[in-house]
Amino acid sequence: MSENKSRREFLSQSGKMVTAAALFGATSQVAYAATPGVANCEVKGTMTLDDTHYYLDNVRLETGFDYENGSAAHTRTELQTVEIENGKIVALRDNKSHPDATLPSYDAGGKLMLPAMRDMHIHLDKTFYGGPWRSLNRPAGTTIQDMIKLEQKMLPQLQPYTQERAEKLIDLIQSKGSTVARSHCNIEPVSGLKNLENLQAVLARRQAGFDCEIVAFPQHGLLLSKSEPLMRDAMQAGAHYVGGLDPTNVDGAMEKSLDTMFRIALDYNKGVDIHLHETSPAGVAAVNYMVETVEKTPELKGKLTISHAFALATLNEQQVDTLATRMAAQQITIASTVPIGTLHMPLQQLREKGVFVMTGTDSVIDHWSPFGLGDMLEKANLYAQLYIHPNEQNLSRSLAIATGDVLPLNDKGERVWPKAQDDASFVLVDASCSAEAVARISPRTATFHKGKMVWGSVNV
Q1: Distance (Å, rounded) from C-alpha 307 to C-alpha 286?
Q2: Measuring CA to CA, how many Å separate 348 from each of 22, 401, 425?
Q3: 294-325: per-residue pLDDT in tens?
Q4: What is the C-alpha separation between 373 and 29, in angstroms, rounded?
Q5: Which intervals hold domain Amidohydrolase (predicted)?
Q6: Distance CA 179, CA 63 (A)
Q7: DSSP letters along 250-273, please?
Q8: Cis status, amide bond into 418, omega within 30 of 0
Q9: Partner of 250 for a Cys bridge, out of 134, 204, 221, 394, CB 3.0 to 4.6 A?
């Protein structure tokens, strides 16, 4: 415990993060390198691979752990050929074994195959990314209400660039190995449904290589901005989730705000994904109220995600255990950006109690935060630094937060991925094993989504 505390304190100081910034969703990002000139990072060009049936040789796959004194000390791997057909992995073969010599073959160059990653909390519809560099000169003491007023002025300026910049953000996160995302999309009187329409247009163009759910997000307050009619319109227009925002600090009526959010979800048979930044007792009350609502409403079981959930950091271990047990029973999900400030989120404890925990980028270079790398492997690395003893097995397990709990090896060291009939969605990484990839945030060389290479290159 003391080791993790010291590590958190160091990361907090080096990242210059403070708990107050959590209100604006900016505690979770840390930039390891600045990008000069423009906000758009350089994304490597992608070669064309249009074949629907092919072999991929020299793929490094994990096969098990070697143990010392009862603990995993090393990860075994071997090179194999993966046969891919119509978006599926149809066979794992001895390396360079090609039963059908007429099929094309490609060479992964010995790179490690890991499951494709999932950026499950991002805002594709509003960003500076792809345009000129801009940092945010936000005065000390800026409140959430101040930020809402700022956004009301800025959104019309950003909207003409929504599609172009969303495309660039998708390029970025694909280059980091993610092919699945959940994007929050502003739904409020200033934007109307325009951001949703723009984002849907982009996702329609990118659907062959990118799956993305949309959360209708009342950024200016569901009640405060009188956005319920627009939210209902968004549900009819195809949004997948009903969003919400700080029901006490923003809407000023916790129960009414949450009841309205849940009622919309029930009326349209949708899920819920709420931004909950509140760290005061009101935040704990909101979490408890949402858990109680799901417990009393069977139709909501498995349909609630609480994003950020910073209030959980204010609870003691026993309180977290009790609440986590109830959350797991109702299949409630936590979406965390793995904050590195003074907040200590009980993410490991939640996972141990069976709560599904996922991660995401949140903002990418926008008016809320200048950070955000779009890299889920970086999030797994932060999780490992903050919450685990970094041995081989624990490091490999930390990858789960980036992949939706899909791992090459199970806890016993048995290979469980990939297997025949799995989607051919994966990333090739310049690493010897999952543990190294997490610890070193290893370079990615190619990203595949359902058999289609969406970024990078392999050898011909």
Answers
A1: 13
A2: 20, 10, 26
A3: 999 999 999 999 999 999 999 999 999 999 99
A4: 8
A5: 161-435
A6: 24
A7: TTS-HHHHHHHHHHHHHHHT-EEE
A8: yes
A9: 221
